[in-house]
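Table S5 (text form). Sequence records supplied for joint modeling of the two-component complex.
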Amino acid sequence: MSMKYFLVTAVMISCSIGCSSDTENKTVTEKEDDKKISSHSDPLPSWNDGELKRSIINYVATITKEGGPDFIPVADRIATFDNDGTLWSEQPLYFQLFYSFDQVKAMAPKHPDWKDKQPYKSVLDNNIGDLMKQGEKGLLQVVAASHAGMTTDLFESTISQWIDTAKNPAKQKLYKELVFQPMLELVKYLQANNFKVFIVSGGGIEFIRAWAESVYGIPKDQIIGSSIKAKYDYNNGDPRIIKLPELDFIDDKEGKPVAIQKYIGRKPVFAAGNSDGDLQMLQWAASNKYKNFELYVHHTDSTREWAYDRKSHIGTFDKGWDEAIAKKWAIADIKNDWKVIYPFEKK
Amino acid sequence: MSMKYFLVTAVMISCSIGCSSDTENKTVTEKEDDKKISSHSDPLPSWNDGELKRSIINYVATITKEGGPDFIPVADRIATFDNDGTLWSEQPLYFQLFYSFDQVKAMAPKHPDWKDKQPYKSVLDNNIGDLMKQGEKGLLQVVAASHAGMTTDLFESTISQWIDTAKNPAKQKLYKELVFQPMLELVKYLQANNFKVFIVSGGGIEFIRAWAESVYGIPKDQIIGSSIKAKYDYNNGDPRIIKLPELDFIDDKEGKPVAIQKYIGRKPVFAAGNSDGDLQMLQWAASNKYKNFELYVHHTDSTREWAYDRKSHIGTFDKGWDEAIAKKWAIADIKNDWKVIYPFEKK
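The corresponding structure-token record, covering 694 residues in total, follows.
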């Protein structure tokens, strides 16, 4: 949460207790901005009105104003979004893990050594606690194993089938229903303003591409993630690409700016994440010569979604939170900033 | 050269000697197609009229015809172009090598071991023959060394400066002037028909991105190439990405379909190359479920450009040529198919 935003929120909270109107403490400019938001069709209807929503809209207005001092040419309007915890939920575990567990269990008969070998043992024992202790690398090994040896075509069809049917055990909703309506609106709003929007996720690149294009409206080639190695097989004239059981690249932390450079070749001007794994991506955007916007999503709603931050194994938000405060980056407090969380909540 | 195209060309060549009109041997459909080309503004003015030009235009018309049996949805209109020898010349050596030689020579004082160590020794001795004997891997090592330890920003500005001033020793033209006008028209024509056009090159990804966006009209994030590893450096809040002297990925031969899957996530429907290094990319496109188009550029003009194929070290066109003939892929014979080769030849 940026200091400015913190102060304004504090004002708004005290107002909701003791003020007759929540606009009384606003400056003239802020009131005019509110008028602009309400007089046009609202591009972010699922965001509560307030400083954060206003700052996003002001940013977009400023950098798209031709001839203005902060104008950004269209080619440089690159926006990068984390996926897990930023565009959809990530509890009780990253959703891709549930997919991978199902796959590892199905593959286990062909890998008898897995029952005594970590991290597979934990999966087969349904011992999530033990699995989590093995850290991100252990989790990614499970993910890699669940892809290995498959052709890309088979993998895509398998995941498509899963995403259309599998439900989150805590919410009893399809995983693909647990995307964040306010973030869908934000992606669409940026695209409408000629931003090229990318996903830059620690999750598996092929996993996300298999379903996210239609769900988020982001083309496959604008989806970047962690990857395993693959090889081309001519296969007597019916060529295929086979995934190998070897990590290629972990698109997390320092890996995110590296992946952005590799896949996009441009520094983003807008970056959004929710965890320490996104910190370097936000730093990278913050170093852009153009006016830039850094957004952290803070999971604060234990009723409608989940509440977690510094001490969570999934989506740890600790160093990133400190740096966001120090650097006055925007922080979306889900409980207070989001009118609606999931699309199915809309009337 | 496809057999069909070969036969039509043979007819046209005999006609240019003995026939009163080069349209006499054409079918009614072909005559109608010619009329279509001439009655609309010609999208490929630097291509000579003939079977190849007609087949490109017919292909685009067919797959963009909504409701037609071969219609391709916009999201699947992926076109991939090789760069060296396909979009610009590549003789007497890949242009990036000339850049790398200049860099290696400039860096040599800091690397005294290079004067006895291949492949650097050959560069410092100006012994191109010896360098070529070390194959593509040796060349890529030189390229990697010329990038290593630089920040991406510095690399980009260095190459931008070079591309604006350095001249090809054989043609005495700026390298960036030696792009193929007919291919620029083809890229633009496909883009106008909602193809997403990518470069998939064996050359260095950062090298091409530094100049190709403005020259070809292809965005940086749609340029794929060979890469070296890189790391993120926080640098006390002024973050940068530093290139490392270690190969990451060679985007050639089997690497091209792998890179296409990794960066794009979709099989192309249109692929163009000029050498055996592009064969797997063309095979990959040819296996698309949608109607697809494979194009090889054959360097046959020793006067206006260069003539080379099976026995050339640069841009070897041997296995690819055989497979193109066997599979009836299109082959652009530069001497006969291209009215103009370079943009500066246009009146």
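Note: Confidence is low (pLDDT under 50) at residues 1-39 of chain A.
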